Amino acid sequence: MSYEAEAKQHEKMAASYSGRPRGDAGLWAAHCSNLKTKLKEAAQEARALEKGHRDLAESLGK
Question: Coil, strand or helix: which one is 19?
């Protein structure tokens, strides 16, 4: 599963927890929202690293 897919999954989970009035739902909603943000950041970083590797490979003629 990609970082983007996991981020979308956690975004949906956070929304689902937000609608629950009892228990630790608020904590789980915050947890999922935080994970969504971190996963989106990881995806962006992974894309930048991939681009760097591709650029390096091209510069070496491979």
Answer: coil
pTM: 0.72
Alpha helices, H only, 1-62: 3-18, 25-59
Q: How many CA atoms lie within 13 A of 17 on its CB side?
A: 17
Asked if 3 contacts 39 with a C-beta cutoff of 8 angstroms, the reply is: yes
Q: Are residues 14 and 39 in contact, defined by beta-carbon separation less than 8 angstroms?
A: no
Confidence of residue 60 (pLDDT cuts 50, 70, 90): very high
Cβ partners under 8 Å of residue 42, min gap 6: 3
Instruction: For residues 19 and 7, give the distance between their C-alpha atoms in angstroms, rounded to a whole number.
Output: 19
